[in-house]
Amino acid sequence: MQTVPNHQVDNLQIEDDRTGLSVECLKRAFLDNLFYVQGKFPKIATKNDYYMALAYTVRDRLLQRWINTAVIYTDRASRTVSYLSAEFLMGPHLGNNLVNLGIYDQVKQAVSELGLDLEDLLEQEEEPGLGNGGLGRLAACYLDSMATLEIPSLGYGIRYEFGIFDQDIRDGWQVEITDKWLHCGNPWEIARPEWAIYVRLGGHTEAYTDERGRYRVRWIPFQVIKGVPHDTPLLGYKTNTANTLRLWTAEAPESFDFAAFNSGDYLGAVQEKMVSENLSKVLYPNDDSSQGKRLRLAQQIFFVSCSLQDMIRIVFGQNVPLEKFHEKFVVQLNDTHPAIAVAELMRLLIDEHDMGWDQAWSITQKSLAYTNHTLLPEALERWPISLFGELLPRHLEIIYEINYHFLEEVKAKFPADSDRLRRMSLIDESGEKYVRMAHLACVGSHSINGVAALHTKLLQQDVLRDFYQMYPEKFNNKTNGVTPRRFIVLSNPRLTNLISSKIGDNWVKNLKDLKHLEAFVDDPEFCSQWRSIKSAIKQDLVAYIQKQNGITVNPDSIFDIQAKRFHEYKRQHLNALHIITLYNRIKANPDIDITPRTFIFGGKAAPGYYMAKLIIKLINSIGDVVNNDPDVRDRLKVVFLKNYSVKFAQRVYPAADLSEQISMAGKEASGTGNMKFALNGALTIGTLDGANVEIREEVGEENFFIFGLTAPEVYALKARGYRPLDYYHSNRELKAVIDRIASGHFSHGDTKLFKPLLDSLLYRDEYLLFADYQAYIDCQDYVSQVYRDRDRWTRMSILNVARMGKFSSDRSIHDYCQDIWNIQSVPIELGECIQAKE
Ligand code: KOT
């Protein structure tokens, strides 16, 4: 047990009720919170009351560490990472905090002695879905690793009132429902209205000469928004470090509506308030695409300006001169959503803090670093100049000036290359004018990184080629990683216990230690335990599917899972083509010997992405037919698990035999689901895309099912002229699959329903499903064959886990610290600096 502050009462040591970790103390504290915070006693308490009481009990234990951490960081003015992200997909806090505090078992026992079930209470938590998918979840994994590695850090983002929508499936279609994650309150956060910050929008600028005769600009805004920080403590795994996630809520400033109010325009004043609050109302539900909406740009400047002003407040509070901003903070930009920071930091330094251009520019570049997360052209953010200038007139002026200096630099390095200037300009002038946010981020940062080796290489060769030629020294790769605390220890306790029983528990902090498992790969007893654990977890998912979907699933079948956002480039429909191929084989020969499979899908489609929604409908329609066709005889099942979320992902990864990572090569920047599946003992069927390449390198090619065109082959095929119809006509099984869909077999005879999808495949097939079809089917046939050799499969599964050490987010964060952030850990001692009370 850890040391905690104690009361001395008549020479008797008793634990403090807010910090003690013994079962008895936890019970007392829990009942105390139920009474004093929830205002309930056991007889009338609801499950939610119990959850809240437990959450407050755990939060109390975090607070002591949080305050200690803050005191030490402040005293030492520690160098700090500021992670700016429009999304943080944190997942439920309670379980994670229990794991990181090391009190999971004590709390389980404490609540059980009070007649409650911990799993039941964990289920109660409404997760904060403040992100779409990979990018937001990565931010959350990185915050966990920074706390675990004792790196001073602040996560800055937006406290959306409505996070990612809840997904329902009706008649096979996705239906979106608003997410009301705050409706029962949020026990994990503390509002800090005393640290509110004001952000300007709109209006115009005026030039003037200051008292020292210098040219200055004044910005007269149309609107001012107040940002109120809400802080959540984030505890590291078995450390005393509790860092902060600071999310901003938009409000109307108190004084702003007085004019309207005084003139009797009460509704006008309230309207003003509503307009302000709109800013943090809802998360944009698009993954990998950018829409150019005004409110979205307003959200970006809102959280970026609040965060930078907050950092400046901290700098002054610690008596650090502003000229040393870049020594106190390094600011990581999570894609271009916060890239307006380049212009905003310049504005703050020059207009608000009197600094000269050159010094401001040097500080800005030294402070900022940019991570790119996508190769999709439609995801590269651009803002129409008209919209940009209307909302951010001063920033547009600054961007023009940055552009002027930058293009001079380009001219000097590449004389007489006007084409290059046009391509690299921060302003796209090919038609309607746009601000190019990725260019702004590249110019304003000292580091530009991709998220997997292949992705970084493609950035250098293609998407950001000109910038690579201009600034080769800025480019570096940081392959993504995931936190083993949430994605093994918390989500897969059975596997965790088996692993730790063999190699101890150091691997939780040093994931490379998993390699010691290799010593047991020939131990039949261990292999059999490995297999029975997977089997037990699959049984749990079987029960869940039975309850959720009413589908009876064979636990001995291959659990073949594709869980991720729906997008054409991720090719969930290629998976669907495989299902229909097997179905056709059964229909042609009902007694065919097929390895039973359960195809499980999970994931949301952007509400406006018609084709992705049609793919969801197709999968559900195939399920309706296949699951009920007597010829199939339970050899195939298709299950769509609705409302995929972090909570849900934790249930799904451990149960997978086969992980589908089948994007068209050159499109998936990294992927992180691929890592979570493999860490839980699933084998991967995948293309040579994103981090799949590195996973295969680590686990060994004999333990990975690879198929399909490589990225260079994709480019070459497209350059030659790709004709999907040729594949359709020359591949008998492929033709039968497409014809089966076109016939209306999966749509009650309706031949129109899936026509847009089929037409897109037959006549365009942008993501080369037809080109990869045969390779995919052959590879899947091979998977089915290997699965029949249970010993071989188990061996492959163990070796996958044993060799996945590289993909811990601890390794990623360690590399960011070394190569980009130049930051050291600051261990936190408990006890001396602050006692809970005495
Ligand atoms: C969304 C909008 C604009 C730019 C990028 C995105 C984006 C990228 N959202 N999610 N991603 C994913 O990020 C993950 C973490 O790096 C990657 O693993 C994944 O491949 C990206 O698609």
Q: List segments where confidence is low: pLDDT < 50 over at least 5 consecutive residues.
A: 1-12, 833-838
End-to-end span in angstroms? 21 Å
Structural class: alpha/beta
Oligomer: single chain
Number of strands: 27
CATH-defined topology of the largest domain: Rossmann fold
Query: How large a portion of the residues is in β-strands, by DSSP E?
Result: 15-25%
CATH homologous superfamily (4th level) name of the largest domain = Glycogen Phosphorylase B
Which CATH architecture of the largest domain would you pick?
Answer: 3-Layer(aba) Sandwich
What overall form do the CA principal axes indicate?
globular
Bound molecules: 1-beta-D-glucopyranosyl-4-phenyl-1H-1,2,3-triazole
Largest sheet: 10 strands, mixed
- Rg over CA atoms, rounded to whole Å, is 28 Å
Query: Helix count?
Result: 33
What is the helix fraction of residues, given as a range?
Answer: 40-55%
Average pLDDT? 95
Description:
- One of its GO terms (molecular function) is pyridoxal phosphate binding.
- This is Alpha-1,4 glucan phosphorylase.
- Its EC number is 2.4.1.1.
- By secondary structure, this protein is of the alpha/beta class.
- It folds into three domains: about 15-75 and about 95-125, no CATH class; about 75-90 and about 125-480, Rossmann fold, CATH 3.40.50; about 485-805, Rossmann fold (3-Layer(aba) Sandwich).
- Helix 3 packs across helix 19 (about 485-490), helix 9 (about 295-315) crosses helix 11 and helix 11 runs antiparallel to helix 12 (about 355-365).
- It starts with 5 loop residues before the first strand and ends in a 17-residue tail after the last helix.
- It has 33 helices and 27 strands.
- Residues about 1-10 and about 835-838 have low confidence and may be disordered.
- It binds 1-beta-D-glucopyranosyl-4-phenyl-1H-1,2,3-triazole.
- 1-beta-D-glucopyranosyl-4-phenyl-1H-1,2,3-triazole binds near residues 138, 669 and 671.
- The site of 1-beta-D-glucopyranosyl-4-phenyl-1H-1,2,3-triazole has 19 residues, from helix 6.
